[in-house]
């Protein structure tokens, strides 16, 4: 820390502290993320160091630039560029109810998508996309930051099973105790877009139980008709409850009303790289053996919805013959005018493995 002069503390969370510093070498300001590792287990230390590896591999005009990292006095220090324009959350709050122009929203949104594409192309989940983690530089450029809880995916089979993230941005599949992939980042992206359009969270409630129920139902107040049909339709796609029905970040950027903006934010070289990138967002991997794999206690999926007191019943998978018989029985027993309840099986997550995102 001798190389840096502390200016002030600008944030604090479960990870540790964020400190604004000035370099004694070049006089520039940076943000240092201080993570206490002295009391961590070896596994937790490895997780903290993983963030450094993730950050070091990120090089994009719309991603907060990593400078260096070091360990000292029982702490891990990660040095990153300082975004003088603050975060998007503060920018939204400063509007005091005055809506942003659509042009501004779309310019910001395209930059966020370009950053997220760079992340997903590298088989990484951000897992904490929110307006507080989206920053503005002095000239107004958007930069995506805080990969503190991102996870590198070694294969499609390695699906994240940890309930992490700010509750307002949790996707339905996380709330329903299901494994998730890139499409949970897409849901969170929808939450940020909604905030930019309404200056409010899409899903709000007085307690966690009701918040989780709202998210699972996918019920949110409509966006003002002040905005275009293209923008409002896009929100509907990002908020599809079934993750397989949500578009990938590439499909989002392919939409004409967004694609024509890309040239404003990328140099010709970077734009060419994006256009020709064959780094599959649909993560390719060996297919798992057929049939349900046994889950040991250490592999059990966390149950955030149950933790919040939401009664969710997940039935065990049944064989194909029994499914047909059950379906026929339900058809006979169904009362006129009453729609049957949809049952989601725990085996459904395996379909993610064969889905090109």
From TrEMBL:
Keyword terms, alphabetized: ATP-binding, Kinase, Magnesium, Metal-binding, Nucleotide-binding, Serine/threonine-protein kinase, Transferase
UniProt-listed Gene3D superfamilies: Phosphorylase Kinase, domain 1, Transferase(Phosphotransferase) domain 1
Domain Protein kinase: 4-258
EC number in record: 2.7.11.1
PROSITE patterns per the UniProt record, alphabetical: PROTEIN_KINASE_ATP, PROTEIN_KINASE_DOM, PROTEIN_KINASE_ST
Keyword Nucleotide-binding listed: yes
Top-level lineage group: Eukaryota
InterPro entries: Kinase-like_dom_sf (IPR011009), NEK_Ser/Thr_kinase_NIMA (IPR051131), Prot_kinase_dom (IPR000719), Protein_kinase_ATP_BS (IPR017441), Ser/Thr_kinase_AS (IPR008271)
Catalytic activity: L-seryl-[protein] + ATP = O-phospho-L-seryl-[protein] + ADP + H(+); L-threonyl-[protein] + ATP = O-phospho-L-threonyl-[protein] + ADP + H(+)
MF term (GO), any: ATP binding
Cofactor annotation: Mg(2+)
Pfam family, one: Pkinase
SUPFAM superfamilies registered for this protein in UniProt: Protein kinase-like (PK-like) (SSF56112)
Family: Belongs to the protein kinase superfamily. NEK Ser/Thr protein kinase family. NIMA subfamily.
Protein name: non-specific serine/threonine protein kinase
Organism encoding this protein: Pygocentrus nattereri (Red-bellied piranha)
């Amino acid at each position: 820390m001798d190389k840096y002069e502390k200016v002030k503390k600008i944030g604090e969370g479960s990870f540790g502290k964020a400190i604004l510093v000035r370099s004694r070498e070049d006089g520039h300001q940076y943000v240092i993320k201080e993570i206490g590792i002295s009391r961590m287990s070896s596994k937790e230390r490895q997780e903290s160091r993983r963030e450094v590896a993730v950050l070091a591999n990120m090089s994009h005009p719309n991603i907060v630039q990593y400078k260096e990292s070091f360990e000292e006095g029982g702490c891990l220090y990660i040095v990153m560029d300082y975004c003088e324009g603050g975060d998007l959350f503060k920018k939204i709050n400063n509007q005091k109810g005055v809506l942003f122009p659509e042009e501004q929203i779309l310019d910001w949104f395209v930059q966020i998508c370009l950053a997220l594409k760079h992340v997903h192309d590298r088989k990484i989940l951000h897992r904490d996309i929110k307006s507080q983690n989206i920053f503005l530089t002095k000239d107004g450029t958007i930069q995506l930051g805080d990969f503190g809880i991102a996870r590198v995916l070694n294969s499609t089979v390695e699906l994240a099973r940890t309930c992490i993230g700010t509750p307002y941005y949790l996707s339905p599949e996380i709330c329903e105790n299901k494994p998730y992939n890139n499409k949970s980042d897409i849901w969170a992206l929808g939450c940020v877009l909604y905030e930019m359009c309404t200056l409010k969270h899409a899903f709000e409630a007085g307690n966690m139980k009701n918040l989780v129920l709202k998210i699972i139902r996918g019920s949110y107040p409509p966006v003002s008709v002040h905005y275009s049909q293209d923008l409002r339709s896009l929100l509907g796609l990002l908020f599809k409850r079934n993750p397989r029905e949500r578009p990938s970040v590439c499909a989002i950027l392919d939409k004409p009303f967004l694609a024509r903006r890309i040239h404003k934010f990328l140099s010709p070289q970077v734009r060419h790289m994006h256009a020709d990138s064959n780094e599959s967002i649909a993560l390719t991997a060996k297919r798992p053996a057929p049939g349900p794999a046994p889950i040991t206690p250490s592999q059990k999926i966390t149950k955030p919805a149950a933790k919040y007191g939401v009664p969710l019943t997940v039935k065990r998978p049944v064989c194909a013959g029994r499914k047909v018989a059950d379906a026929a029985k339900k058809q006979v027993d169904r009362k006129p005018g009453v729609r049957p309840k949809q049952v989601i099986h725990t085996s459904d997550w395996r379909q993610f493995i064969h889905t090109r995102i």
